[in-house]
UniProtKB/TrEMBL annotation:
TM regions (residue ranges): none
InterPro entries given in the database record: DUF3489, WH_DNA-bd_sf
One Pfam family cited in the UniProt record for this chain: DUF3489
Protein name according to UniProt: DUF3489 domain-containing protein
Organism: Tsuneonella litorea
Chain positions covered by the region annotation Disordered: 1-49
Compositional bias per record (Basic and acidic residues), positions renumbered to this chain: 39-48
């Protein structure tokens, strides 16, 4: 009877670095053991909240329907965004004209 012994390879955990990664930089300048790290861009990509702020800063503000159309949100999400802007310190005024609510950012006069 011949005995063959096989050595099992030790299992690696998903986040454990591989044994051959020495952490040195390769020719591309990135760490071979970690994914590429991107530098933050100099210009900020506008998000939906920026569009909402732009609409609210217009003369006359914006209606809920306009906010929903621009952002693609449901009406309750657009209203929640208005609440979030209020919590961040923006003064939002609501006016009703012909049964339609209009929302606008009020510029506060500094004293």
């Amino acid at each position: 009877m011949t005995s063959t012994t096989t050595t099992k390879r030790q299992r690696r955990m998903a986040r454990q670095p591989s044994s051959d990664a020495s952490g040195t930089l390769d020719a591309g300048g990135s760490d071979s053991a970690s994914p590429a790290i991107r530098e933050p861009s100099e210009t900020k990509k506008p998000n939906k909240t920026d569009f909402v702020l732009a609409l609210l800063k217009r003369e006359g503000g914006a209606t809920l329907d306009e906010l929903v159309e621009v952002t693609g949100w449901l009406p309750h999400s657009a209203r929640a965004a208005l609440t979030g802007l209020k919590k961040k310190g923006h003064a939002i005024k609501r006016t009703r004209l012909d049964g339609v609510s209009r929302y606008a950012i009020v510029e506060l006069v500094s004293q």
